[in-house]
């Protein structure tokens, strides 16, 4: 349910059902195995070329406590990828003339601020101005508890708006909660039944459904967060809270089948798909664009509990890719870059995942502001909790991973910092610059 924008810039594995003998697929497997064996990744990946699955494999555990390995049919909660299903159903209802993109929210929920100005389109592309209920500091207080529609609507009503409709766009799970309620109002059926009838059964998706309490006997994965060197099982969010904004679970194989069908016109008409893909303020209507080099993928990503996921489609190559994660010990965006780099034969270097144990006293001694005669930027080193961070003037802070008592790195940017008395040397891109503590 959290918003994760995937912006792609340039030892226990489970059963694989395909030979995947091509070198590029072997490399993908080696990348994912590397992260898995270093306790940085548990999850599943599927790649589909047109209607043919060319890579399909699961890594790590569905149930770590009982040592149950994941397989390609293990279900993972997909969070906000659910929004693609919700948007597809809204477009089906538009095609059936049961509402329009210009239909106003006031026809259903006039009590919400600006309802007479907020359209279905505004809800779809996050330009409604309605406050995102998951941003509320009290959200985690009730996330595990069943919620009624009345209670959720009252919260959304009480929050009011953060900007006027069509003024700009800002991601809000509230929009898709409302779209789910509207779907139920129009069809007189439960949201989960509508999804099942209109998409799941139609496409014969065998492992996609509205989630409930995790049941390992149904091959449903638990999610985990990395705490130091240990995986800790995460809490379960009640489905009534996430609803049409994030309450589906699935597999990468089902997800790639879904997005392929969507782009082939098997779920909504081509005209509707074009409208869904149209970007306003950087948002489509249930989809984002995320680039990999010169390629532009359409899709969505999701985060809920300890799960994260991404689903993308590159129309030119008719390529679908999905990754579901139930144990994220490394930025999943960077892992996906490794997968796509391997697929497209783009040079990719495996990150250094080595981590050393450094005392708080040593970390604390590095705190301070450092300047260099060769770079017109100062770098501030700060200890946040037990994590050493670096921040250059005018830039965001980034974490430093200890390789030894004196050497630290930030792998995504290829940075290595070597501390010495009253200063450090920073290595990046073949250059070295010396900094001195002020």
TrEMBL record:
<dbReference type="InterPro" id="IPR012338">
    <property type="entry name" value="Beta-lactam/transpept-like"/>
</dbReference>
<dbReference type="InterPro" id="IPR050491">
    <property type="entry name" value="AmpC-like"/>
</dbReference>
<keyword id="KW-0378">Hydrolase</keyword>
<feature type="domain" description="Beta-lactamase-related">
    <location>
        <begin position="44"/>
        <end position="330"/>
    </location>
</feature>
<protein>
    <submittedName>
        <fullName>Class A beta-lactamase-related serine hydrolase</fullName>
    </submittedName>
</protein>
<dbReference type="InterPro" id="IPR001466">
    <property type="entry name" value="Beta-lactam-related"/>
</dbReference>
<dbReference type="GO" id="GO:0016787">
    <property type="term" value="F:hydrolase activity"/>
</dbReference>
<dbReference type="Pfam" id="PF00144">
    <property type="entry name" value="Beta-lactamase"/>
</dbReference>
């Amino acid at each position: 349910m959290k918003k994760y924008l995937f912006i792609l810039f340039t030892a226990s594995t489970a059963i694989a059902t395909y030979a995947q003998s091509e070198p590029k697929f072997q490399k993908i497997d080696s990348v994912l195995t590397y992260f898995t064996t270093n306790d940085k990744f548990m999850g599943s990946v599927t790649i589909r070329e047109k209607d043919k699955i060319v890579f399909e494999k699961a890594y790590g555990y569905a149930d770590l406590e009982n040592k149950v390995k994941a397989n390609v049919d293990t279900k993972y909660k997909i969070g906000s990828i659910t929004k693609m299903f919700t948007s597809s159903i809204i477009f089906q209802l538009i095609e059936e003339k049961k509402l329009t993109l210009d239909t106003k929210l006031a026809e259903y929920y006039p009590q919400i601020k600006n309802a007479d100005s907020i359209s279905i389109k505004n809800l779809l592309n996050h330009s409604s101005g309605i406050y995102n209920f998951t941003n509320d500091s009290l959200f985690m207080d009730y996330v595990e508890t069943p919620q009624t529609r009345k209670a959720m609507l009252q919260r959304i009503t009480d929050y009011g708006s953060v900007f006027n409709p069509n003024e700009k766009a800002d991601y809000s799970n509230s929009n898709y909660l409302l779209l789910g309620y509207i779907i139920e109002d129009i069809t007189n059926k439960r949201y989960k039944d509508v999804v099942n009838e209109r998409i799941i059964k139609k496409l014969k998706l065998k492992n996609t459904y509205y989630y409930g309490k995790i049941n390992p006997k149904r091959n449903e994965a638990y999610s985990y967060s990395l705490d130091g060197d240990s995986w800790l099982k995460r809490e379960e969010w009640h489905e009534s809270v996430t609803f049409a904004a994030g309450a589906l679970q699935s597999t990468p194989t089902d997800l790639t089948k879904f997005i392929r069908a969507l782009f082939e016109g098997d779920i909504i008409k081509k005209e509707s798909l074009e409208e869904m893909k149209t970007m306003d303020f950087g948002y489509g209507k249930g989809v984002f664009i995320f680039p990999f080099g010169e390629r532009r993928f359409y899709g969505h990503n999701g985060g809920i509990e300890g799960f994260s996921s991404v689903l993308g489609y590159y129309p030119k190559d008719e390529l679908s890719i999905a990754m579901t994660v139930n144990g994220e010990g490394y930025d999943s965006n960077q892992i996906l870059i490794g997968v796509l780099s391997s697929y497209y034969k783009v040079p990719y270097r495996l990150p250094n995942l080595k981590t050393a144990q450094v005392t708080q006293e040593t970390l604390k001694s590095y705190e301070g502001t450092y300047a260099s005669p060769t770079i017109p930027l100062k770098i501030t080193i700060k200890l946040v909790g037990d994590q050493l961070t670096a921040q250059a003037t005018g830039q965001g802070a980034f974490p430093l991973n200890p390789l030894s008592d004196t050497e630290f790195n930030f792998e995504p940017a290829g940075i290595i910092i070597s501390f010495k008395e009253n200063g450090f040397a920073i290595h990046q891109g073949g250059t070295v610059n010396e900094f001195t503590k002020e």
